[in-house]
Amino acid sequence: MTHRQGEKTLNLEDLIENVTVNLLQLAVTELPEDVKTALRNAYDKERSPIGKTQLKTILENIKLAEERRIPICQDTGLISFYLKAGSQFKDLDKIEKILRKAVMRATVKIPLRPNAIDPFIQKNTNNNTGRHVPYIHWDIANGDFLEITAFPKGGGSENMCALKILKPAEGLTGLKRFVVESVVNAGGMPCPPTIIGVGIGGGADIAMDLAKRALLRPLDEQHPNPFVVQLEQELLEAVNKTGIGPMGLGGDSTALALRIEYAHRHPASYPVAIAFQCWAARRAAARIYADGSVECLSHKNRSLL
Ligand code: SF4
After folding, report:
1. Which of 57, 157, 159, 283 to mutate to test the pocket of ligand 1 (most atoms within 8 A of CB)?
2. 8, 40, 42, 267: which is deepest, by most CB within 10 A?
3. Other CB atoms closer than 10 Å to residue 302's CB: what's the count?
4. In the predicted model, is pLDDT for residue 9 greater than 70?
5. Could you tell me the distance, in angstroms and rounded to a whole number, from the CA of residue 8 to the centre of ligand 1?
6. CA-CA distances (angstroms) from residue 202 to 161, 166, 291?
């Protein structure tokens, strides 16, 4: 099957590569509407004059980046992809190679800051790819589509991620204490107002994976479990009472949202992971169908071809 793009005829592999380059460009230059709305609401509600000024600057920054098609922040992040692959979608074994190629192209085209460094010899690959970078998370679904979420994540917020294996007896009280302590400890470092992902249960790896996945849930979407919704609200209010405020300079808006995902746990352990996402909460997602049609999921009415 071939597909038309402008004057060129594309095969499905080229189409996936082009869509991925465009997704990365969209992600780093334009925040999804739910994040922009949350930032505008935070600006309206902020009572601290310094906090309000910070939010005003952030909103202007976002607008300028969007108008000029330039990255929202100089740190264009370490890149991960979350894939939902239909089991009937062809050539799934080629996807990793295609995504790596797309990242290399995007690094030059947009451009992205080269952020993939060998941890032993400190050498930058200069193309945002390396061992396990971009990291690809796979979920398999029924169907003949491929859903790609590009998730470039900045280092400042990543540095404040935290993991603790609580004693089960500490329970919810220990969980709440750990969340608030982690936010206080992070202060202005993750560029607040943040989105806080909390992963609970499973093992250490599962808890952190869930915390990261929690960051991907659009801010206008509720968790299906009402207990989780209530806990998210309670913890959000608690972290916003810390007074850390926008960029850590004081104010009401320390976090835009707090999102929880959970798994059942071993009787002996109660893992809790916290992932911070800065105000530049970048993500862009698309669904590619086997017939070559493409739907942008994260930004309304956007062509990715
Ligand atoms: S934490 Fe986010 S906003 Fe702050 S410098 Fe890093 S990418 Fe930019």
Report:
1. 157
2. 42
3. 16
4. no
5. 37
6. 17, 12, 38
